[in-house]
Amino acid sequence: MTFLLLMKKEFVVKSIDSAPDGAPYVIISLSSLKELKGGNQNPPAAFGSPKVMGFSNMNDMMKDLSKMMSGGGGMGMPSGVTQLKLEMHEYKEMGLSVGDKVFLELSKAETLGI
What we know:
This protein has a single domain (2-51, 79-111), classed as CATH 2.40.50. A hairpin with a 6-residue loop joins strand 1 and strand 2 (25-32). The relative contact order is 0.33. It starts with a strand and ends with a strand. The protein has a four-stranded antiparallel beta sheet with strand order 3-2-1-4. Helix content is 23%, strand content 38%. By secondary structure, the chain is an alpha+beta fold. It is built from three helices and four strands. The longest helix is centred in the middle third of the chain and has 14 residues, at 58-71.
């Protein structure tokens, strides 16, 4: 017997960025409605945006670098943001814009039996 497990979440398109390597795809950044309603006044920088940090000695640099890497979910990626890579034809078909409400649906087939 096969069951289908389903999860559906609601998001808002936060940003749409071109591929960092110039390839024919875009990076769509999504924020959950919970995070937006939480009053996050200073949203994290978009994917690929440079982050400027000042330091006066090597110890400060290492501390700041650690904060940047860990505080944003790794490699400077903003925390609380879900990112999708869409091919150009998928992006054009959907006609997405910043601020659009979207749903992300994940499903997994589970097989039970002996």
